[in-house]
Design goal:
CATH superfamily of the largest domain: Thiamin diphosphate (ThDP)-binding fold, Pyr/PP domains
Number of domains: 3
Low-confidence stretches: 179-184, 631-639
Helix content: 40-55%
Number of strands: 19
Largest sheet: 7 strands, mixed
Number of helices: 26
CATH architecture of the largest domain: 3-Layer(aba) Sandwich
Shape: elongated
CATH class of the largest domain: Alpha Beta
Structural class: alpha/beta
Radius of gyration: 28 Å
Strand content: 5-15%
CATH topology of the largest domain: Rossmann fold
Distance between the termini: 81 Å
Length: 639
């Protein structure tokens, strides 16, 4: 028998290591129940965490954390890890303003040695740590836990290739939770994993090497190949062996009787090089609604623990993502050249909708954004019309390909940039803050931002017809505002904005989804006697130079508003106006952008308030600009 609420005895991993090994299964059961209960209240990533409960317990039980480092890739696997590393009391603040991050975060805990929210970084980062420890003569262990599709990214293999060549002391746990790599796991493979990770086999392997070294190269090569052949038959580790890793597995990631001895053997081994332990887990394990769900409850809103029913938004308004998907489907029905591409996010980008309709024309390339972009570039050279649907924050990973493979060659690849702007609970790692800046700076690009769902449809229509250069249109997470959607034949004139409301004193030049806040601000300003024009710029590149010049000449104040960082739309407007000499004539101009900080997670409304991009902030910016006077500092130290 074990004490009830055994989890209550564990605040830190040191407490876990005091628990008897036979009680670890009960710890896992309680940890899994706690995880389900927590996420039912907070929402967030559930399936991946359920799949690594036993692995989390085993790792912290065997390794001396935080002296030994464990890096989770990606961080949404780490909810169970957070619960047993001193954060249980705050775990219900997960993804809330002022609360715990939904990912690993260095500033949050010494048990999070590396922040991870984008995938496939664990092996590279832990290799850096391993080399640092070696240089410092530090014998503590470094462990990377990579899974949930993260092995589909090239960066993981680049890191493994480097680690294998360097013979660095590094442990990689491959959490294979979709059976994409593993062969069937049974008693024999588990037994062999324990055997192959044990001291006896490691010693025997070294003895064989020593003996064969005294014989001819031909015999030595045959002996080596025979050993590899035997190991590969039972374990399937050929690829990892070729990359320089000692492969162990596959083993059942939910069986602590297998996990504990294997991890213990690996920890204590004298092997001087990287080791990969292949662990097979089941995403959503132990919670039937998650196990039965197609996505294994990868990401969920709040839900009923008993039924698994999620508390979905009751809004009847369509999401921007769905508007994009449905519009692209309509175009693809008439144009067989249209191709959909995404990187492991078919449901998040709406490409699942496109894929159901056109399974032969939708390509999910995995977590491989660089490949996705160049793959699209190749398609476009053959006359196809690829639409690359990727979150703004993930597209950052393919910037060189956008520049070199698309922009320089003026290839008409269309980028559908989802999750543009601040995204709420996922925090700074997933906010689309930089795409305006990093795309609008490139020659040959058309860069658009939708102010509402109707404008998004027009931008998709426009992109379909752009055949001489790349284009991008950005749109936010969440629901539209409820406007009527136009026909798919309605396109925009490239580089032309739209006056929404006319005034005389102040011009608010909006780019993107802050248009409604601009309109709200203009009503307040009008009521206090400040006549305000509101314009939807639509394009950051090319700019509507004539419209912007007219606004500058006919208004005392020009303010640009965008959901992006410095260097974006406002900077391009300012550069153009300065070249035209407008500022020489007294125009007051300000740019409202995201602040030069990474904003922590909160509700989107609170995040935009903190960023100074809500209605009240716009009003205050107008007032302060109108009342400002030029002050020239007079100081003998200023030349």
């Amino acid at each position: 028998m074990y004490k009830k609420n055994i989890l209550d005895q564990i605040k830190y991993p040191a407490d876990l290591r005091k628990i008897k090994e036979k009680d670890l299964e009960n710890v896992s059961k309680e940890l899994r129940a706690e995880l389900v209960d927590v996420v039912s209240e907070t929402g967030g990533h559930l399936g991946a965490g359920l799949g690594v409960v036993e692995l989390t317990v085993a790792l912290h039980y065997i390794f001396d954390t935080p002296k030994d480092k464990i890096v989770w890739d990606v961080g949404h696997q780490a909810y169970p890890h957070k619960i047993i590393t001193g954060r249980r009391e705050k775990i219900r603040t997960l993804r809330k303003g002022g609360g715990l991050s939904g990912f690993t975060k260095r500033s949050e805990s010494e048990y999070d040695p590396f922040g991870a929210a984008h995938s496939s970084t664990s092996i590279s980062s832990t290799l850096g740590m391993a080399v640092a420890k070696s240089l410092s003569k530090n014998s503590n262990h470094v462990v990377a836990v990579i899974g949930d599709g993260a092995m589909s990214a090239g960066m993981a293999y680049e890191a493994m290739n480097n680690a294998g060549a360097m013979k660095s002391k590094l442990i990689v746990i491959l959490n294979d939770n979709d059976m994409s790599i593993a062969r069937p796991v049974g008693a024999m493979s588990s037994y062999l994993a324990r055997l192959l990770s044990g001291k006896t086999y490691f010693s025997l392997r070294e003895i064989i090497k020593f003996i064969t070294s005294a014989f001819s190269k031909r015999f030595k090569d045959r002996a080596g190949k025979a050993e590899e052949f035997i190991r590969d038959i039972v374990s399937g580790g050929t690829l990892f062996n070729e990359l320089g890793f000692y492969y162990v597995g596959p083993i059942d990631g939910h069986n602590l009787k297998d996990l504990i001895p294997v991890l213990k053997n690996v920890k204590n081994s004298k092997y001087k090089g990287p080791i990969l332990v292949h662990v097979v887990t089941k995403k959503g394990k132990g919670y039937k609604p998650a196990e039965d769900s197609r996505d294994k409850y990868h990401g969920v809103s709040k839900f009923n623990v008993v039924t698994g029913e999620q508390s979905k938004s009751k809004s009847n308004l369509p999401t921007y993502t769905k508007v994009f998907a449905n519009t692209l489907v309509k175009h693809a029905e008439n144009d067989t050249k249209i191709i959909g591409i995404t990187g492991a996010m078919p449901s998040g980008t709406g490409m699942d909708i496109f894929g159901k309709k056109f399974p032969d024309r939708m390509f999910d390339v995995g977590i491989a954004e660089q490949h996705a972009v160049t793959f699209a570039a190749g398609l476009s050279t053959e006359g196809y019309k690829p639409f690359v649907a990727i979150y703004s924050t993930f597209l950052q990973r393919a910037y060189d390909q956008i520049v070199h493979d698309v922009a320089i060659q003026k290839l008409p690849v269309r980028f559908a940039i989802d999750r543009a702007g601040l995204v709420g609970a996922d925090g700074p790692t997933h906010s689309g803050s930089f795409d305006i800046t990093y795309l609008a700076t490139l020659p040959n690009f058309v860069v658009m931002a939708a102010s509402d769902e109707a404008e998004l449809v027009k931008m998709i229509n426009t992109a379909v017809n752009i055949k001489d250069r790349p284009s991008a249109f950005r749109y936010p997470r969440g629901n539209g505002i409820g406007v009527e959607l136009p026909d798919i034949k309605e396109i925009l004139e490239i580089g032309k904005g739209k006056i929404i409301k006319e005034g005389k004193k102040v011009a608010l030049l909006n780019f993107g989804a802050r248009l409604q806040e601009c309109l709200k601000a203009s009503l307040i300003l009008d009521n206090i006697g400040i006549s305000t024009t509101v314009v939807d710029a639509r394009f950051a590149k090319p700019l509507d130079e004539k419209l912007i010049m007219d606004l500058s000449i006919n208004h005392e104040v020009l303010i640009t508003i965008e959901e992006g960082s410095i260097g974006g739309f406002g900077s391009h407007v300012m550069q153009m106006l300065s070249e035209r000499g407008i500022f020489d004539k007294g125009l007051k101009m300000r740019s409202m952008i995201l602040p030069d900080i990474f904003l922590d997670q909160d509700t989107p409304e609170q995040m935009y308030k903190k960023a100074g991009l809500d209605r009240d902030s716009i009003v205050e910016k107008v007032k302060s600009t109108l009342s400002s006077n030029i002050v020239i500092a007079k100081n003998k130290n200023i030349s």
